[in-house]
């Protein structure tokens, strides 16, 4: 299940994160280095920006979900280098199965620029779109069969994939989600998704914030922080 958020990230916040993302792109010496930089981007630095971006979207989301202890499970920059490989179809639950007692994690995928197929924009199943008010029904899906592939590089660093027969069936109803700069979609951990190879000649700039209910966390994986902790911080 997924929904396009009505709220958008402000131009000022997108401008700021784009500036910092560009520094990462320029400093990375390889596609692999860029992948790791993406994952670490919001861990120690850039929490000031994460807070501002969170505050742009969270008021809308908060109204529709009922978490006892809202946390940010993780947040990443999602830059796909020019020529960066397709991220083949998967459900995030295949990666996150041991993180929670009951699945609650959902991702907010934010476009830092206009998304196209050629850039490697996000593709989702059109029949799974719901209005934002139905976010309360997130994470009640089921898991398709996945397989682990050996060479993670062939799939943009995502090595657990929906098996080929199911993938080609689902692919018939997958579509690019059209997103302008600052627009975002929220999708739950059962939502099959993929992105194509970036053939645009320029880096694709996106980011995600994965929210969860901390009351369901196992100790298998550290989380970033509680939303109230992030909101409280004034001098990051
Ligand atoms: O942004 C992408 O290319 C794919 C990201 C993805 O699959 C995820 O963040 O779960
Ligand atoms: Fe994913």
TrEMBL record:
InterPro entries per UniProt: Phytyl_CoA_dOase-like
Domain of life: Bacteria
Molecular function terms, GO-annotated: 2-oxoglutarate-dependent dioxygenase activity; iron ion binding
Cofactor(s) the protein requires to work: Fe(2+)
The protein, known as: Phytanoyl-CoA dioxygenase
């Amino acid at each position: 299940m997924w929904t396009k958020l009505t709220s958008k990230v402000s131009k000022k916040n997108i401008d700021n994160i784009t500036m910092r993302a560009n520094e990462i792109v320029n400093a990375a010496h390889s596609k692999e280095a860029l992948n790791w930089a993406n994952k670490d981007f919001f861990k120690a630095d850039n929490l000031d920006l994460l807070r501002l971006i969170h505050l742009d979207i969270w008021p809308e989301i908060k109204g529709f979900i009922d978490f006892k202890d809202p946390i940010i499970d993780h947040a990443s920059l999602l830059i796909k280098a020019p020529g960066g490989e397709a991220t083949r179809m998967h459900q995030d639950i295949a990666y996150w199965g041991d993180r929670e007692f009951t699945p609650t994690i959902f991702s907010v995928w934010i476009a830092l620029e206009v998304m196209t197929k050629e850039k490697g924009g996000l593709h989702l199943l059109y029949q799974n779109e719901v209005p934002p008010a139905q976010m309360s029904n997130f994470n009640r899906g089921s898991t398709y069969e996945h397989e682990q592939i050996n060479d993670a590089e062939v799939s943009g660093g995502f090595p657990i994939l929906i098996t080929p027969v199911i993938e080609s069936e689902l692919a018939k109803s997958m579509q690019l989600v059209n997103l302008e700069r600052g627009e975002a979609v929220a999708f739950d951990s059962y939502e099959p998704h993929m992105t194509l190879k970036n053939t645009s000649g320029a880096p694709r700039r996106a980011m995600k914030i994965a929210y969860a209910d901390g009351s369901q966390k196992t100790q298998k994986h550290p989380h970033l922080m509680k939303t109230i902790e992030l909101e409280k911080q004034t001098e990051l």
